[in-house]
Each structure stands twice: as structure tokens, then as C-alpha cells.
Amino acid sequence: MQPKDMKQKVCLALDVDNSEDALKLVRLLKNYVGVFKIGSHLFTKVGPKIIEDIRELGGEVFLDLKYHDIPNTVANAVRMATRTGVYILNIHASGGCDMMRAAVEAAETEAQKRHIRKPILLAVTVLTSLTDRILSDELRVKHDVLNQVVHFAELAKSAGIDGCVASPKEILAIRKTCGDDFVILTPGIRPVWSTAKDDQRRITTPIEAINSGANFIVIGRPIVKSEDPVKAAKSVINELLQENA
Ligand code: C5P
Question: What's the CA-to-centroid distance between 99 and ligand 1, angstroms?
Fold first, then answer.
């Protein structure tokens, strides 16, 4: 695989407090990372202007706001997000089929109307911080994580969603049921040299995730909190390129 193609699979979580820190990371890392993820942390502080700023620097944006509301509200949020030109956008599969269908229709209609591209719409399955115990004891979900993830992925696919967010441990099972065209994006990535597991439970290395068939990997703290983010990002991309040479 070409370095530029591999770079497009790596998505950096810009979990920082302000635009200056976020844009500094984009400038530093845009040669190693193709997609920059803006989550509720940064977006709540700085708003949509950051999307424009990152795109001007040549980065693609994954707007990770995980919408979960009634269909009409989610459709309106997706419509507004589509206007910003984001590359990837997500909603929660647990919002149900009507909500997911409303999101798909809103993204398609808005993109057509404005002659812009439709964002890749992903459904969050089960957050990578959750475990079987939390699902059963706290959330009273009757299935284990893997079964619940595969169920949500199938549901999302049937609603017309492009793909899903899941842990790397679930990629093979999702591929088997949802096929090769279904986009899979995985957080919960920890390179071998990264000592911190943080609050992630179902983790794996970048290579394992890509080799299992992830289309995108999301990595945050191992790069952002590193003393040398460029060295950390370079080592992730070099490892991936060596393995796929
Ligand atoms: O720092 P770390 O590599 O754990 O960052 C992972 C990022 O992916 C965070 O921004 C987190 O919100 C996000 N994420 C996740 N699990 C999901 C969906 C998104 O960890 N299921």
C-alpha cells in the first residue's frame, strides 16, 4: 500500500482544549495522519470553525459527535454537519432504525442540494469503554458485547448507514455479516510501545486492527499526550507500512 493511502486510514483524535493546540497538532502531523477527529470535547469549546480551519490546512475531518436523539433532531444535526464538508460523521445505532434512516436521508438530500459530497455516515455500536459486565449489570442488555455489536452493525446496514464504529476485536465478526463494503472504524488502538490503556477496555495495536480489516483506525492519547507527537505518529505509520509492504 502507498504511504498516502495508509495515511488516509489513520485518524487522530484531537482531544485538546482549544483551537490553537488542535491546529498545532494538525500542522505537525498532517504528513502522517489523513483524518483529524473532532469530538465533543473540542467542539463544545470552539464550535464548527475548527472544521474549516483543519480543511484549509489540507486535513480531512471526522466529526465525532455521536448524535443520539429523536429522528427529526438527528436529521437536522446531520444536515448542518453535512454543510461543513466533513468527511466522516457518526450517530448512535442505539437510536434505532428510524433515527438512522432519517440521518441517511438528511445527509443525502443536503449533499445533493448543495452539490457537495455526502459524508461517510457511521453508526457507533457499543462504546469501546464498555464491557460484558457493564452491559448486563448496568445497562441490562441481554447480549454480550460481541453479539450486541454485530446486531447494531447489521441494523445500521439495513438502515442505509455506510459503516460502523466498533472495537478492533469485533472487526472479523462484522465483516462476516456486513460484507467487505461496510466501512469499519476502530478506536481502542494502543501501539505496543504505548504503556497507557487509559479508559479503553477492548484494545489492540494499529497493525492488528488494519490486518483484521479496519478501514480507519482512531488513535488519540498515545500520540497527543506523547512527549514527541511527531515521533509517535511516524512510528505508527511506519509500522503499518512495513507490515503491509
Ligand atoms: O485517546 P484514545 O486513543 O483512547 O482516543 C480514542 C478516541 O475515540 C476518543 O476521542 C473517543 O471519544 C473515541 N471513541 C471511542 N470509542 C468509541 C467511539 C469513539 O473511544 N466507540
Answer: 23
Q: What local confidence, expressed as pLDDT, does residue 6 receive?
A: 87
Which set of grid coordinates corresponds to residue 16? 485538546
The CATH number that applies at residue 109 is 3.20.20.70
pTM over 0.70: yes
Q: How far apart are CA 245 and CA 133, in angstroms?
A: 40
Residue 166, C-beta contacts closer than 8 angstroms, at least 6 positions apart: 125, 126, 128, 149, 153, 174, 184, 185, 186
- With a 6 Å cutoff on the Cβ, whether 217 touches ligand 1 is no
**Protein residue with least CA distance to atom 21, ligand 1:** 127
Q: What b/e readout covers 213-241, taking b as 16+ CB neighbours within 10 angstroms?
A: ebbbbbbbbbbbeeeebeebbebbbebbe
Percent of the chain exceeding pLDDT 70 equals 96
pLDDT tens track for 183-213: 999 998 999 888 766 776 778 899 999 999 9
Q: How many angstroms separate the first and last alpha carbons of the chain? A: 7
The total number of structural domains in the chain stands at: 1
Query: What range defines the domain where residue 95 resides?
Result: 3-243
Tell me if residue 66 is catalytic: yes
Is the CB of residue 220 below 6 angstroms from any atom belonging to ligand 1?
A: yes
Ligand 1 atom at shortest distance from the alpha carbon of 200: 4
Q: How many residues make up the chain in this entry?
A: 245
Inter-residue contact 204 to 188 (CB < 8 Å): yes
Contacts of residue 198, defined as CB under 8 A and 6 or more positions apart, other chains included, come to: 221
Question: What amino acid occupies position 175?
Answer: R
Q: What is the spatial distance between Cα 130 and Cα 41, in angstroms, rounded to a whole number?
A: 19
